[in-house]
Amino acid sequence: MDEREEDRRGAVARPDTEDGIAGGGPTDAMDEATARHELSRLAEVLARAEAAYYQADDPIMADADYDALKRRNAEIEARFPHLKRADSPSDRVGARPAAGFAKIVHARPMLSLANAFDEDDLADFDAGIRRFLGLGEADPLAYTSEPKIDGLSLSIRYEDGKLCHAATRGDGTEGEDVTANVLTLACIPRHLPGAPGVLEVRGEVFMRHDDFAALNERQKAAGQKVFANPRNAAAGSLRQLDPAVTAERPLSFFAYGWGELSEPLGRTQTEALARLSALGFPVNPLTRRCSSVAELLDHYREIERARADLGYDIDGVVYKVDDLALQARLGARSTTPRWAIAHKFPAETAWTELLGIDIQVGRTGALSPVARLRPVTVGGVVVSSATLHNEDYIAGRDAGGAPIRGGRDIRIGDRVKVYRAGDVIPKIADVDLTRRPAGAAPFRFPDRCPVCGAPAVREEGDAVRRCSGGMSCDAQMLERLRHFVSRPAFDIEGLGARQIEALFADGWIREPADIFRLKERYGTGPRQLRHREGWGARSAEKLFAAIEARRRIPLARLIFALGIRHVGESAARLLARHYRSFEALAAAMTEAVDPESPAFETLLSIDGIGETMARALVRTFAPGPERQMIDRLVAELEEIEPPEDRSAASPLAGKTLVFTGTLARMTRAEAKARAEALGARVAGSVSARTDILVAGPGAGSKARKAAELGVDVIDEDAWLAMIGGG
Fold first, then answer.
1. d(CA 58, CA 365)
2. What are residue 452's phi and psi, to 5 degrees?
3. Which of 31, 88, 345, 404 gives 20 to 30 Å between its CA and that of 151?
C-alpha cells in the first residue's frame, strides 16, 4: 500500500481559474452555491498542483497547504455529496507519468491516504472502521504507527527472488519505469533468496539531511542547480534519464508495504514488515504496534518531539489496521484505503498588509475576490495573494449572516493574518483592527462583471455573485476553454492554459469546436499558427497531430470537458456508465426537461446524481446557444468511446441494487462496497429500475415496494452466495 498522499504539489497559485477560492466560513454554515464555488476552484488548482509535484519535482507548497486544501474539499463533499465534481481531488491519485520514461502499469493500484489533522479526526477514523466492521467500542482493534516519510513513492517487483522492474507511483495506476536507476541503489536488494515467487515491495525513496547538504555543496561547486529541499533532491535523483547520475546521489529507502503477492508475508502488518526486514529491506525502526487510539496519540507526540533529530524529513504519522484480514474486509474507496490514515503535523500562519482586492470571473460566472498581499513567507513559501472567498466573507459574516472573525470586516490597507493550511491560494484568517489605517473604507463588492459589464446577480440563497453575461462574457468562455483542455478533460498536448489564452485573445479559438478547426483555418494561408510568436513549423504540426488524436475521446472525458456545473469526474463516469453513448445521454436529457418524466426519474435514480446536478444537466442540454455549442463540438469528433466494463464477468455488472433491513454477516457499508466492486450500482430507494433488493430482518416499505414492482428480492444468504461467500 502506498504511503504518499498528495501533498505539496507545487501548484502556482492562480486566482483566475474556476469560480471561487476555497477557504471561507465553516462548512456547516455553507449553502450549495458556496459549496459549488469552492469545489470548482479546488479541483482546478489541485490538478495543476499535482502535475507540478509529481512531474516537475519542484513543489512550492508546504505539506500543510495541500493537506488542508484536500481536507477542505473532502469536508464540502461530505456535506454536499451530490455536488462532487468529476475532477474531484478525492478521485485522483498523483498525476500522470512524465514524458521521457517508459510506463509500467501497477498490478495493484498505489493508493493515496486520507488525512487526520487532530484527535477528533483520529477518533472518527477509529469509529468509522468499527462501524464498517460491526465492532463495538470495547472490542480489541490494533494498529501500527510509523513516521510518514517525505520522499518519492516507489514500487519494486521481484519474481523468483530477482528484481524485475521498479516504478514510481505516477497516477496510482501507471508509473514511470525507473528500473535502471533503482538497480544503482545500494539500499535496495537485487536478489531476495527465500522471497515469495511474486513480491512487490513498496516504500519511500528519500534523502537524509546530511546527504542533502553534501549534495548541494557538490552541486554548487560544480556550478549546477542546487535543490530546494531533500524531497526535491530525492525525486529528481531517482527520475534521471541517465542512471549514472542516480548512482552518484545519496538516496535512502524505507519499505512500508507491498503490492501484488503470490503468498502472504504474514497475518498482520507487523509480521509482514518483519518479513520484509528479514529479506533485507530497511524498515523504519520507529514503527510500533498500538492497541488503542490513546496509544496512537502517544506515539504521534513522541515522534513529533523527535522530528527535528531524525535526520530526515517527515510530515506526519501513518496509522494502519494491523490485522491483514481486517484490511482486506475494509478494502478501499476510489483512491484511499479505509484501513489507513495519515495524521499530519500542523501548519503555519503569518501577518502582512492587504494591498488590494481583485475580482476574478470564473467559468460559471462567479465573481471571486482575491487579496493582493505584501509578499510574506509562510511555511517556507512566499505568499502574495490569498482568497477572500466572497462578499460575505469580506464583510465579516458567513453564508447564514452570522458573524465570523468576531464580525470584523476586511479593508484595503489592513494588517491581515494569512493561513496557509487551507488553500493553494491561502486564506485570510483574521484582521488586526489596532493596525487599521485611518480612513480605510469598507470594500464595496461590484454589482457588474468587471470583464463584460453585465449585471452580476446574487440569487436568493446563493453566497456567490455571478456574471449574467453567459457565453457573451469573455472571462467565462476563456475559463471554459481552459477547463476543456485540462488534464482530466481533453488533455491536448501542447495546448495548455497559456496557449489557450493567447489564441483566445486573438480570436483564433472562441469555443471548443474551434480547436478542431485550427488546422483548417490556420494551417495554411496568410495567417498560420507556425508564424505566431513562440511557434514554428514543427510545434504547429505536433499540435495539429495532438488535436487530431483527440477526435476520439472516452465518453466520461467528454462529459467532464463540457464544464457543466456540479458535474465532476466522478459524476461524468457515473453518467457515462449509465447511458453508454453521447446520443443516449443527450436524448435522455432532452426528455428529462419535464421533471415528472421517466427520464428525469431515471437520472435521479443513478446513485450519486442529485437533483441539483440533474437540473444543471437538463439546462445544459436544453435547446439554446449552449446546446448548439455542444453540437458543434460533437460534430467535430470521430468517435466517442463507451466506458470500459471491467466487471463484465460479474453477475452483478450493470445491475442496480438496494439494501434494506439488517445484515448479520457484514455491515451495510461493506455490502455496498462489495457490490460496487463487482460492477453494480447501489441506490438508496427502490424504483422500476431496481434489479435486486437485498432484504435483511426488519425490511419494511422498500420490500413492499419491491414486491409491487416485481423486483427480485433476496436474503443475505443468497446475496453472499451471489458474491462468492462472505
1. 32
2. -105, -10
3. 88
Q: Is 97 in contact with 177 (CB distance < 8 Å)?
A: no
Distance CA 649, CA 627 (A): 37
pLDDT at 477: 94
Mean pLDDT of the chain: 86
Write the Ramachandran bin of 63: left for phi over 0, alpha for psi from -120 to 50, otherwise beta.
alpha
Q: What is the maximum span of the chain, computed from C-alpha positions, in angstroms?
A: 81
What confidence tier does 14 reach under pLDDT thresholds 50, 70, 90? very low
Q: Which is catalytic among the residues 70, 84, 103, 148?
A: 148
- How many helices and strands (H and E) does the chain possess? 25, 24
Structural domains of the chain in order of their starting residue, each with its CATH number: 113-344 (3.30.470.30), 554-641 (1.10.150.20), 656-722 (3.40.50.10190)
Residue 632 grid coordinates: 458543434
* Contact by Cβ (8 Å): 5, 204: no
Provide the 10 A C-beta neighbour count for residue 380. Answer: 12
| Partner residues linked to 357 by β-bridges | 371
Q: Which residue has the cell 462472505?
A: 726
Identify the H or E element spanning 201: strand 198-206
Residues 550, 73: Cα–Cα separation, whole Å: 30
Measured distance CA(648)–CA(678) in Å, rounded: 9
Cα–Cα distances in Å, from 690 out to 618, 645, 657, 694? 23, 19, 6, 11
Question: Is a pLDDT exceeding 70 seen at residue 58?
Answer: no
CA–CA dist 633, 620 (Å, integer): 14
What's the distance, Cα to Cα, between the start and end of the chain in Å?
23
Q: What is the pLDDT of residue 3?
A: 39
Q: How far apart are CA 668 and CA 699, in angstroms?
A: 13
Q: Examine the residue annotation and report whether 148 is marked as an active-site residue of this protein.
A: yes
Which H or E run includes 586? helix 582-591
pLDDT digits (tens, 9 = 90+) for 115-160: 898 899 999 999 999 999 999 999 999 999 999 998 999 999 999 9
| pLDDT at residue 384 greater than cutoff 90 | no
Q: What are phi and psi of 716, to 5 degrees?
A: -65, -35
C-alpha cell recorded at residue 519: 488546422
- What pLDDT was estimated at residue 725? 64
